[in-house]
Amino acid sequence: MATRAMLRAFSKSTFPCRTSQHLSLASVSRSASTLVLAEHEAGSIRAPSVSAVVAANVLCKDNSISVLLAGSGPSLQEAATHAASCHPSVSQVLVADSDQFTHPIAEPWAKLVHLVQQKGDYSHIIAPSGSFGKNILPRAAALLDVSPITDVIEMAESDLFVRPIYAGNALCTVRYTGANPCMLTIRSTSFPVPPTLADSKSKEAPISQVDLSTFGEDSIGNSRYIKQTSQDTERPDLGNARIVITGGRGLKSAENFKMIEKLAEKLGAAVGATRAAVDAGFVPNELQVGQTGKIVAPELYMAFGVSGAIQHLAGMRDSKVIVAVNKDADAPIFQVADYGLVGDLFEVIPELLEKVPERK
Ligand SMILES: Cc1cc2nc3c(=O)[nH]c(=O)nc-3n(C[C@H](O)[C@H](O)[C@H](O)COP(=O)(O)OP(=O)(O)OC[C@H]3O[C@@H](n4cnc5c(N)ncnc54)[C@H](O)[C@@H]3O)c2cc1C
């Protein structure tokens, strides 16, 4: 069985596809002052937004990171307090408090970014590469007349970034030669929050309100908030979980998929799925892992009845330890697995459920 280490070495060093899109040789000199667009929930800024601060810190060693939060009500103020102490490099938190931001709709947010950029003249604007950042950043970039760079996994220099292309099979180095601001979405799995940071109580940055007096009512645009549905809050968030248990088409039905959920419960894990499992209606599409789903990099990724299509691997190949169970010994998932078991998942999962102790 080819080991994952071999595959990684192949794709990251000897694979001939590390491309360079150096648009011009002239390097743009910037003194970095970065604005991070942060998403918050229940009075805290979300983990991917803290990763965006970690990424911003690679650019700005001189503590000049501003965090922008928008919303309304008391939970916004709680989130601002959290943002103010989430990383020692945060120099200020900007809060836009208005009913227009109660839901993260892209149009008013993009207009807000435009307004804040006009006042702050930031060299970089960074958002995490989830649905929040992917929704807002391109619109804000259009308003600011710059071209964003998405899915950055490495900040090589303040204007040189690495991002995956072809479903993660090649890495592309891009030099930004446009005008300020350089707008980026970052993959949070590539900028993990150091555990020591979560434990430490860092200094509190000042919090100030964004002046919205010039912010018109016309920013609502064509989008309308209908409702938000989210996964069971008892379970860890798929994007940040330490363990992910994924089921594929091999599970055969939504009823059988419940075995995956039971195992995840026992292990305190998040549940993932392949696109085939989602398309077959076993689980909702928020659980999809892969090129067109979520990108995960947990400590442990267990895949049951997953063939290992390239589009699926694009979302999980950076997991620390990969375990695969498949009845087909030639399934491509075994090429990236650290531990592989050729077997019938309908025998393996019940046995695991029996042997794994209940969580206290
Ligand atoms: C543009 C594009 C984007 C895509 N994006 C994604 C994406 O984001 N995520 C994604 O996952 N896919 C994505 N896909 C789809 C992808 O190409 C595959 O079709 C999909 O990942 C296959 O899912 P699967 O492994 O569950 O199903 P299959 O490929 O059908 O594999 C099922 C596996 O289960 C095994 N199996 C069956 N029964 C058992 C059993 N009893 N015990 C053990 N093993 C068993 C089989 O041997 C087989 O290997 C995308 C495709 C395209 C074209």
UniProtKB/TrEMBL annotation:
Keyword Zinc-finger: no
One Gene Ontology cellular component annotation held by this UniProt entry: mitochondrion
Coiled coil location: none
Subunit-level organization: Heterodimer of an alpha and a beta subunit.
Alphabetical GO biological process terms: fatty acid beta-oxidation using acyl-CoA dehydrogenase
Pfam assignment, any one: ETF
Domain Electron transfer flavoprotein alpha/beta-subunit N-terminal: 34-219
Phylogenetic lineage: Eukaryota, Viridiplantae, Streptophyta, Embryophyta, Tracheophyta
Name this polypeptide is given: Electron transfer flavoprotein subunit alpha
Similarity annotation: Belongs to the ETF alpha-subunit/FixB family.
Role description: The electron transfer flavoprotein serves as a specific electron acceptor for several dehydrogenases, including five acyl-CoA dehydrogenases, glutaryl-CoA and sarcosine dehydrogenase. It transfers the electrons to the main mitochondrial respiratory chain via ETF-ubiquinone oxidoreductase (ETF dehydrogenase).
Keyword line: Electron transport, FAD, Flavoprotein, Mitochondrion, Transit peptide, Transport
Binding site for FAD: 249, 274-275, 288-292, 305-312, 326
InterPro entries registered for this protein in UniProt: DHS-like_NAD/FAD-binding_dom, ETF_a/b_N, ETF_a/FixB, ETF_alpha_N, ETF_asu_C, ETF_asu_C_CS, Rossmann-like_a/b/a_fold
Superkingdom per UniProt: Eukaryota
One Gene Ontology term of the molecular function aspect: electron transfer activity
Necessary cofactors: FAD
